[in-house]
Amino acid sequence: MLRNGERSAPSKTDAEVDFDALLAEEDGEVDRAMRRAVQKALARHKALGESIVVWRDGKVVELSPDEI
Q: Is the confidence at residue 38, as pLDDT, over 90?
């Protein structure tokens, strides 16, 4: 048991931690969360009859709810 102010020793040193693997795993989670958020926002716009604006072929394009 640790006493007040004592810290437990880490299981791995910084040199042993695979930061690239950690970041890749977190990137995947962030990507999935972003995709879900965008899908939810697009569904909401469509359901409410609201258009959206996107960037397509170097131009700003407005999409109607039917085009979403």
A: yes
Collapsed DSSP state (helix, strand, coil) of residue 52: strand
Contact 61, 53 (CB under 8 A): yes
Q: For residue 28, give both structure tokens.
A: 């995947």
Looking at residues 13-39, what average pLDDT do you find?
A: 83
Stated as kind and residue range, the H or E segment containing 60 is strand 59-63
Q: Which two tokens stand for residue 39?
A: 């899908």
Tell me, rounded to whole angstroms, the distance of Cα 8 from its chain centroid.
32
Q: For the whole model, what pTM was predicted?
A: 0.60
